[in-house]
Write a structure and sequence with these properties.
Chain A is an alpha/beta fold. Chain A has a single domain (4-121), classed as 3-Layer(aba) Sandwich (Rossmann fold), CATH 3.40.50.2300. In chain A, 44% of the residues lie in helices and 20% in strands. Chain A has five helices and five strands; from the N terminus they run βαβαβαβαβα. Chain A has helices at 12-24, 35-44, 62-70, 89-98, 110-121; strands spanning 4-8, 28-32, 50-54, 80-84, 102-105. In chain A, helix 1 (12-24) crosses helix 5 (110-121) and helix 2 (35-44) packs parallel to helix 3 (62-70). Chain A is globular, with a radius of gyration of 13 Å. The two termini of chain A are 13 Å apart. By secondary structure, chain B is of the alpha+beta class. Chain B is 40% helix and 21% strand. Chain B has helices at residues 2-27, 33-52, 56-74, 81-103, 109-127, 168-172, 177-185, 224-230, 291-318, 325-347, 353-370, 387-408, 412-417, 450-459, 471-476, 499-508, 588-591, 662-679; strands spanning 158-166, 190-195, 213-220, 238-245, 349-351, 374-379, 384-386, 424-433, 436-443, 512-518, 522-530, 535-543, 546-551, 555-560, 566-569, 573-578, 581-587, 605-610, 616-621, 623-631, 645-650, 656-660. Chain B has a six-stranded mixed sheet with strand order 14-18-19-17-16-15. In chain B, strands 6-8-9-11-10 form a five-stranded mixed sheet. The longest helix of chain B has 28 residues, at 291-318. The radius of gyration of chain B is 37 Å and the shape is elongated. The chains are: A alpha/beta, B alpha+beta.
């Protein structure tokens, strides 16, 4: 069964990278450009097996997205990985406080992304 | 990967544009959080992508830039003129680095060094406040692609005993113990035992509480750090104890992996994978298409236009009544064809914004180089024009902007003395006017010093000292080759490239350039360009029974020559007197080999053609038929280059007509008429 991942990033390059890494590893991907776009996608699609999101995005940032996702009953247990170039612990703490499951520090290798995903989706 | 790389660089262009826009907004006085954030995000995204491709120069510069912007975002750095200037320079360097990374050219730190130092100073100033430390530990290092964990047969195996007790928060954050146990299994064989001691009776069970713990035995070559890495995401969300059992020999009995069945059905509402299409849905507002394909389409639409014109003529010839269905149908077809043609041309069109942004950089660099304070105002950036035109406009426009900064605007002191603000203004605007795109470059400088221009022109033998020229004629002297009024050749614009080159470049695009200046108020250059290079405004003429098209942009004026205006100059050269000047007359029919020169050209139609060097020549033709847009059809290579012929077109009646390159034709012919041309004072007063 193909695991479905929703990848949220305002950078097209990052979305492409994530999609390439995920498709190569046999995941199905949905893409969104920012938090609001992602929430819209989540209305349309069945709950994904994981969400990967950037933090710094226009309209609705990663923290806001995580909080909104966790507030939805159907999505409260969906693993959410945060993509960040800011490896500082402060960021991780904030992401976790918002309800993030884990994080991936950019730049990442496809294998790291997949590994982190496996860690949260089994 | 190459494709993503390409798309990264395209995205970089967009991000750099957003960066410029944001900085411009800040310069205009708006620096709310969102603007600063947008600027930050642009740099941040470039850094992120660059890191993924191992573009170290780009990453490290973007990092400093981003750190400074972050300080601004956090409020530890105040946005002053100096900071803003540094940010603009940072954007320029970033754009250079992106280009270098894209083209694979080496980076020259000489350009970026001072900017980097300036950024570091900003960061340093902010860091005194001690808050801009967040992103400082960014590691641009690449990490090995394959993580070969635990499979190293030569490494001694260890036996680890692990106690893992998740807290409620672990579940709330979307983590799942089962996944972690599976991840551990990748390090080596594991044996787990679920500890249910704290599990309350069912009626007392709070499903939000965490009641289970696990004892795990792991035999692995990996170190403790590798095990902790598995639990990285749940660090702080569980009790984790790891002990290495020294007494255990390496050969552990194969653990019972069936112990890995889920301890309890986890409250995984998402376990059932959605049956959605696995096709990635990529939201995209744009499609990238090879330019060749578009050109093919443009060409085909050109064919339709020609075909439609031929059809119209046939219908006309058939003498159908005006209200016949064929005619009204054709009318609609005509309208549709025009719409299609416009739409297809628009595919090749791009907003001039990217061009204007490049110019804002030129202004910054030019003004910094000569120590003038200059501000560029742009307008009509959304105006669209053919992609090729945009590309080929960059050089002439760059030159004009440098000229405006260098010669057009006065020094700050002179400006103050003249009661103007110290900061000079340059206005660059684009707009549509009667089916063409007009680009206007205006400065509020001193205007053209006509006495000086006149003196220079006399000094260089371009005009006679006693010539009487109108203001417009004097202004147009600037377009003569090699003309420069700069007293000192400055590093900026005095590079031997004159406005004549600019004019030639504009004319090659089917454009026209004119100049207007008012003493003390400034100078305005107006460039008028066709919307597309695929159609051309032409004058249809006949000579010796042949029909030809002459580009309208090359024609200064047309007239019917009288006997009184004709002068013979030697046996083979004719001149015409044109407003007290002599212009060499060429017989187009003879030049193209259609006929032998006539004895008498009185009554011929004459096209006056302006040349690059400001001189003019006249072409004698038989009749002027029409003025219309024609679709340019390239002559195939098999015909070779025909001097004086630029391309061909098909007229409405199906007739093929050659499109003349009058300048080329005249240059080729000048060999024979040189003595005359050299004698003729080289100016006309018509607009260029």
């Amino acid at each position: 069964m193909t695991l479905q991942v929703l990848a949220v990033d305002d950078s097209r390059t990052m979305r492409d990278m994530v999609r390439l890494a995920l498709t190569g590893a046999g995941f199905g991907t949905h893409l969104a450009e920012d938090g609001l776009d992602a929430l819209g996608k989540l209305d349309e699609i069945a709950p994904p097996d994981a969400i990967i999101t950037d933090i710094n995005m226009p309209r609705l940032d990663g923290f806001g997205l995580i909080e909104a996702v966790r507030a939805r009953d159907a999505l409260r247990a969906v693993p959410i990985l945060v993509l960040t170039t800011e490896s500082a612990d402060g960021m991780k703490a904030r992401a976790r406080a918002a309800g993030a499951t884990g994080w991936i520090v950019k730049p990442f290798q496809p294998s790291q992304l997949v590994r982190a995903l496996r860690m949260v989706t089994g | 990967m190459a494709e993503i790389r390409a798309s990264f660089f395209i995205e970089c262009e967009e991000l750099l544009e957003a960066l410029q826009d944001g900085l411009q907004t800040m310069l205009d006085g708006t620096h709310d959080g969102e603007t600063v954030n947008t600027v930050f995000r642009a740099v941040h995204s470039i850094k992120g992508g660059a890191g993924a491709f191992g573009l170290d120069d780009l990453v490290s510069f973007a990092h400093s830039f981003e750190t400074a912007l972050d300080a601004l975002r956090a409020g530890t750095l105040a946005l002053g003129d100096a900071a803003l200037k540094t940010f603009f320079q940072g954007a320029d360097v970033l754009s250079d680095l992106v280009r270098e990374a894209r083209d694979g050219t080496a980076h020259d730190p000489a350009g970026s060094g001072p900017v980097l130092a300036a950024l570091d100073m900003l960061i340093g100033a902010a860091a005194v406040d001690g808050r801009a430390d967040d992103a400082m530990d960014f590691q641009p290092a690449m990490i090995a692609l394959d993580l070969d964990l635990g499979d190293d047969a030569t490494a001694a195996e260890h036996l680890y005993r692990i106690r893992f007790r998740p807290a409620a928060m672990l579940y709330a954050s979307g983590n799942e113990p089962l996944h972690l146990l599976r991840a551990l299994r990748e390090l080596g064989p594991v044996r787990t035992r679920c500890i249910e001691d704290d599990l309350p009776p069912l009626d007392a069970l709070d499903p939000e509480q965490a009641c289970l713990a696990w004892d795990i035995e792991l035999a692995a070559a990996a170190g403790e750090a590798d095990i902790r890495e598995v639990f990285e995401f749940v660090d702080g969300l569980c009790d984790l104890e790891i002990h290495e059992d020294e007494s255990m020999p390496a050969a552990t009995p194969p653990p019972d992996l069936t112990a890995l069945t889920p301890p309890a059905a986890p409250e995984q509402t998402t376990g059932a994978g959605p049956a959605m299409s696995a096709t990635p849905t990529t939201p995209r507002a744009t499609v990238r298409v090879d330019l060749d394909r578009i050109d093919r389409l443009v060409n085909l639409v050109g064919e339709i236009v020609i075909n439609q014109a031929m059809l119209s003529q046939s219908v006309e010839a058939a003498g159908l009544p005006p209200n016949s269905p064929v005619r009204s149908g054709l009318e609609e077809f005509l309208q549709l064809t025009r719409d299609i043609q416009d739409s297809v041309m628009m595919i090749r069109a791009q907003p001039v914004k990217s061009l204007f942004q490049r110019m804002s950089r030129i202004v910054r660099e030019a003004s910094a180089a000569i120590g003038k304070e200059v501000r560029l105002h742009t307008e009509g950036e959304a105006t669209e024009i053919d992609k090729t035109v945009i590309e080929r406009l960059a050089d002439p426009l760059t030159h004009m902007i440098r000229n405006a900064v260098d010669h057009g605007l006065e020094q700050a002191e002179a400006r103050s003395a003249a009661g103007k603000p110290r900061e000079g203004d340059i206005f660059l605007s684009a707009f549509h006017r009667s089916g063409r795109v007009v680009i206007e470059l205006r400065d509020d400088g001193a205007g053209i010093d006509r006495d000086k221009v006149f003196r220079k022109a006399v000094e260089r033998g371009l005009i006679e000292a006693e010539a009487r020229l109108s203001d417009g004629e004097i202004d147009n002297l600037l377009f003569l080759p090699g003309f420069s009024t700069a007293d000192a050749i400055s590093a900026l614009s005095g590079r031997g490239v004159g406005m004549d080159v600019v004019r030639t470049a504009i004319q090659a695009l089917g454009g026209r350039i004119s100049i207007a200046s008012e003493r003390g108020q400034g100078t305005t250059f107006t460039i008028s360009l066709p919307l597309t290079l695929a159609v051309l405004d032409g004058m249809v003429i006949t000579v010796a029974g042949e029909t030809l098209v002459v580009p309208l942009s090359a024609i200064h004026e047309t007239l019917a020559v009288t006997q009184a205006e004709l002068r013979a100059f030697g046996p083979a050269t004719q001149l015409i007197a044109l407003r007290e000047r002599f212009v060499p007359l060429l017989d187009l029919g003879a030049e193209l080999g259609y006929r032998t020169p006539l004895d008498d050209y009185a009554g011929s139609a004459v096209l006056v053609i302006g040349r690059e060097d400001g001189s003019t020549a006249a072409l004698a033709v038989d009749t002027i038929e029409d003025q219309r847009q024609v679709v340019i059809k390239g002559l195939q290579d098999s015909y070779g280059r025909v001097p004086g012929i630029a391309a061909a077109t098909i007229l409405g009646d199906g007739q093929i007509a050659l499109i003349l390159d009058p300048l080329d034709l005249i240059s080729t012919a000048t060999g024979r008429t040189r003595p005359a041309a050299a004698l003729v004072p080289a100016m006309t007063g018509t607009a260029l």
